Amino acid sequence: IDPSLDIVAEIQRLKKEKNAVILAHYYQDAEIQDIADYIGDSLGLSQQAAKTDADVIVFAGVHFMAETAKILSPKKKVLLPDLKAGCSLSDSCPPHLFAKFKEQYPDHLVITYVNCTAELKALSDIVCTSSNAVQIVESLPKDQKIIFGPDRNLGDYVRKKTGRDLVLWNGACMVHEIFSQDKIADLRKQFPEAKFIAHPECEEHILATADYIGSTSGMLKYTIENPAQQFIVATESGILHQMQKASPNKLFIPAPPNNVCACNDCPHMKLNTLEKLYNCLYYGLPEVDLDPAVIERARLPIERMLEISE
Ligand code: 13P
Ligand code: SF4
């Protein structure tokens, strides 16, 4: 890319020229969030993808999110700035192994967390996100047997909240499993007024001490509405940009990880850059493509989720 190019202005121009919309997840770099038409959590992003009238969706997020957009809007061109932007949680549940797992529980309904491949969604009855998982489980009859995957931490959280006995797949997110209980406790002593907020992908012992547990959108809303002036935040660090923008005078502290060499960045989310976003708009590549048969089978469980979440 020509270093004299004003990338932000060029992205805006290309967006108009190609009737494209940029959907960005809260875990993207601040400069990508600032250029997006919509920033949101997984549920908000899929609702936007389902209703947009743009011809092109540029998904500033990871592969499973762009796939979900393609499933909901199969006639549209869906671009992902870096096709290698995957997800450790999605990788922790290979569809062929899950299919075998599911065979052991023939009378169970399958709820899958949206952080999984399109093939896995095609094996599911209902999809959910972290903002509606409890609501979706509660919408089912009390005696309904349920398999929940791939995130065991979210599954365990839903199990506790609903009192339902879910059969869990043993998957997890690499970013949400790094937090140190001891270091968080030390930080809370240092900032006794601070609220500790956590994403339900975090481990049980971390969630046990949280003042609030919710999706990225839920956490953001909590920091806006709660009168506290300090927050310790246990999720990917990208969300701090919107928290700080919404409440410039409040203090947001990323929850400390166990390992001093670790950080709260998702290496998959952070593969996307402004330069790659510009290139993908300019060239119309790389595009997310899916087998029409998979789209057909994966659409119903996602649409069920959207109906329940309306
Ligand atoms: P939400 O934004 O839906 O809370 O999801 C978090 C996440 O880990 C996405 O990869
Ligand atoms: Fe996947 Fe975790 Fe990254 Fe979200 S933060 S994309 S769940 S690895």
List segments where confidence is low: pLDDT < 50 over at least 5 consecutive residues: none
Overall 3D geometry? globular
Whole-number count of domains: 3
The end-to-end span amounts to 42 Å
Tell me how many strands there are: 12
Q: In CATH, what is the class of the largest domain?
A: Alpha Beta
Instruction: Count the DSSP helices.
Output: 15
- What is the mean pLDDT? 97
List the defining traits of the structure above.
globular, Rossmann fold, 3 domains, binds 1,3-dihydroxyacetonephosphate, four-stranded parallel beta sheet, alpha/beta, binds iron/sulfur cluster, single chain, 310 residues
Question: What is shown here, in short?
Answer:
The protein folds into 3 domains: 7-86 and 269-289, Rossmann fold; 89-174 and 298-309, 3-Layer(aba) Sandwich (Rossmann fold); 181-254, NadA-like (Rossmann fold, 3-Layer(aba) Sandwich), CATH 3.40.50.10800.
Indicate the topology.
Elements lengths: L6 H11 L2 E6 L4 H6 L2 E3 L1 H10 L4 E5 L2 H10 L4 E3 L8 H4 L3 H9 L5 E5 L4 H5 L3 E3 L4 H6 L7 E4 L2 H11 L4 E2 L12 H10 L4 E4 L5 H4 L4 E2 L2 H10 L4 E5 L4 H8 L4 E4 L19 H10 L8 H18 L1
Parallel strand pairs: 1-2, 1-3, 3-4, 5-6, 5-7, 7-8, 9-10, 9-11, 11-12
Structure characterization notes:
The chain folds into 3 domains: about 5-85 and about 270-290, NadA-like (Rossmann fold), CATH 3.40.50.10800; about 90-175 and about 300-310, Rossmann fold (3-Layer(aba) Sandwich), CATH 3.40.50.10800; about 180-255, Rossmann fold, CATH 3.40.50.10800. Helices cover about 45% and strands about 15% of the residues. It is built from 15 helices and 12 strands. The strands form 3 sheets. Strands 2-1-3-4 form a 4-stranded parallel beta sheet, sandwiched between helices. The longest helix has 18 residues, at about 290-310. Bound molecules: 1,3-dihydroxyacetonephosphate and iron/sulfur cluster. The site of iron/sulfur cluster has 13 residues, from helix 5.
